Automatic annotation (TrEMBL):
GO MF entries: DNA binding
CDD domains listed in its UniProt record: HTH_XRE (cd00093)
Keyword terms, alphabetized: Cytoplasm, Repeat, TPR repeat
Family, as annotated: Belongs to the Rap family.
Recorded superkingdom: Bacteria
Record's keyword annotation contains rRNA-binding: no
Protein name per the record: HTH cro/C1-type domain-containing protein
Cellular localization per UniProt: Cytoplasm
Entry keyword Cytoplasm: yes
Domain called HTH cro/C1-type: residue spans: 16-70
InterPro entries attached to this UniProt entry: Bac_ResReg_Asp_Phosphatase (IPR051476), Cro/C1-type_HTH (IPR001387), Lambda_DNA-bd_dom_sf (IPR010982), TPR-like_helical_dom_sf (IPR011990), TPR_rpt (IPR019734)
Transmembrane segments: none
Amino acid sequence: MDPLGNATAAGLGERIRVLRGKRGLKQQDLASDDISASYISLIESGKRGAPSDSVLASLAERLGCSAEYLRTGRDDHELEETRLRLAFGEMALRNGSNGEALQTLSDLLARPSLLDPSMTRRARIAQASALEKLDRIEAAIAILEDLQRDPDLPPGSADWCTVSVALSRCYRNAGDITTSIEIAERAMSRLDALGLDVTADHVQLGATLMASYHMRGDLTRAQLLGVRLLDSAERQGARAARGAVFWNAGLVARSRGQLNEALALVERALALMSEDDNIRHLAMLKMNCGSLLLQVDQPEPARAKQLLEEAQQLLAEVGNAPELAQCEIGLADADAMLGNWDEAAAHAERALGLTGPESRIQAVGARATLAEIHLLRGDHEQAAQCLQAATRQLRQFPPSHQTALNWRYLGDLWRRQGNSTAALQAYDHALSSAGLAPNRDPSSTFTEQGRP
């Protein structure tokens, strides 16, 4: 039994009956050599499934409408208008008008009768993307989870890959690295099980998985996956896919302290993706490249500042608050290295303002950068206040590779500030966040056993 099919047939029959009545036609008037009047009667009563395309075309011609209208209840003009609105919503999303895109897509989805299944899926994927870019991660995850459960979304399809990548990325951005990795690993296994050669979808999913491994601090696994993907990406020839792999390989090299190698990889990714229409990716790459130029053996602060300013302009259109804050921190570091301390402090203050009332790791970075600027100016009291605030805030974050890096930075700043106790505590937190638990104190065992 197919209730949905019966409902569709009933709607079709009703439309034929109404149109026939409006035009003063009898069932016999719709009949032909291939279509009997009794068949027309069965269609109108909903007792027959949807007829073939040729029968629909014949009925539409006699009724003076389109076959699409008989099939769906939408006329050609309405269908074309819906397609244009969907395309407009997707274009607004690409151009960084995320709020406008979300409004357009939500309006379309509020009238589901205007959309066929394929258009509905496109609109929901774009809606989830708009929500993600507006930092409404939980709402985006709810839509993507529902899409992933759709039995009509076959593994290996372009939409399936898009949903899997977006869902893994959203969980990562929400701080649930474990679930992010599980989703990407499961999707990679599904692709492998299809028996296909390594495709661009493998590369895209793999790049997302690399990023999650990196964030978890699993650098060895990220590097091994990167080696596999680089070879596949080169064979695929897709510039954006290759760029994504080089980008993530650069991040892994950076975390391993191989800064010159990281810069070379990120610069290659930037060259590959410079012609891509993904403005946000280009902005993030410019920001990463600028940041690395400040950390390599021979820093280039002037070039770094130029790249960071270009990234800032792009992120003003398509970025979210945390990304803009990170860019401001990079600009603060560049200006500090150039001796522009007032400009550096202004960038750090703007970064702090962009983080808002929520607890974000960028706020820790902004306060640490302000502390460093105060130290450069010789203002140790102001530096201590910034470091105390950064230390209090960083304690709220769970252990991770990124948390460990921030604790290490705070430890170095506390040491320069002259507070060795705070520096040692920060280094201890850094080791714990990196997964290195402190050794048990043997004297505590003696005390527990009642020994002196």
